[in-house]
Design goal:
The complex is a heterodimer of chains A (121) and B (113). Chain A is built from no helices and 10 strands. With 121 residues, chain A is an all-beta fold. Chain B has 113 residues and is mainly beta. In chain B, 0% of the residues lie in helices and 51% in strands. Chain B is built from no helices and 13 strands. In chain B, strands 2, 6, 7, 8, 11, 12 and 13 form a 7-stranded mixed beta sheet that branches. In chain B, strands 1-3-10-9 form a 4-stranded antiparallel beta sheet, with no helix packed on it. A two-stranded antiparallel ribbon of chain B has the order 4-5. The chains are: A mainly beta (121), B mainly beta (113).
């Protein structure tokens, strides 16, 4: 079955850009009508959807983060990526990648294991 | 944005007893054209990602025990664990997928009394 795995720096300096990649295995990122999302969760808190990308490159972002977020897809590498600029301590969180479908309006399944990114000098 | 409000924040239930979690959306998430409620429930255990257990408000994901059930429509929803087991200790989240931005409830922590 499809598996997702996040990777990228675990420590980012304030004001810099957070960059993460989600590798998709077990199937082609192009197969099916799937959308690929990033979600984050600060320690001990709730979940925040960051945004999603379709394999065409079409994106939709959470307005709360839209000015700082870029999500892209690389179908040749079977992966998609997140860039979050001008980070502060408030961006410290576990970042998950996940899949959904149906125009992007569905539940998320599966999820990656998540990666903790800390913003600190 | 559709705001999802869960209650309670936490609850402690004896083994074998019923646990009930509520989720309220700030606007209806019932899509009239297909009569479906665009709501999912997730279970998250420590150190793990969330796992979907219910979607369309009441459809149980494959492999999820039938002690888990979802109900409700419009703006008010409930997740019920009919007979709490040790392995059900977790945080539970609701999520609406009616419109973007997709939003989650704040979570309910379920513990053993």
């Amino acid at each position: 079955q499809v598996q997702l795995q996040e990777s990228g720096p675990r420590l980012v300096q304030p004001s810099q850009t957070l960059s993460l990649t989600c590798a998709v295995s077990g199937d082609s990122i192009n197969s099916g009508n799937y959308y690929w999302s990033w979600i984050r969760q600060p320690a001990g808190k709730g979940l925040e959807w960051i945004g999603r990308v379709y394999t065409s490159g079409s994106t939709r972002y959470n307005p709360s983060l839209k000015s700082r977020v870029t999500i892209s897809v690389d179908t040749s590498e079977n992966q998609f990526s997140l860039k979050l600029s001008s980070v502060t301590a408030a961006d410290t969180a576990v970042y998950y990648c996940a899949r959904n479908f149906d125009g992007g309006t569905s539940w998320f399944d599966p999820w990656g294991q998540g990666t903790l990114v800390t913003v600190s000098s | 944005d559709i705001v999802m409000t869960q209650s309670p924040d936490s609850l402690a239930v004896s083994l074998g007893e019923r646990a009930t979690i509520n989720c309220k959306s700030s606007q209806s998430i019932l899509y009239s054209s297909n009569n479906k409620n665009y709501l999912a429930w997730y279970q998250q255990k420590p150190g793990q990602p969330p796992k979907v257990i219910i979607y369309w408000a009441s459809t149980r994901e494959s492999g999820v025990p039938d002690r888990f059930s979802g109900s409700g429509s419009g703006t008010d929803f409930t997740l019920t664990i009919s007979s709490l087991q040790v392995e059900d200790v977790a945080v539970y989240f609701c999520q609406q997928y009616y419109s973007t931005p997709l939003t989650f409830g704040g979570g309910t922590k379920v513990e053993i009394k």
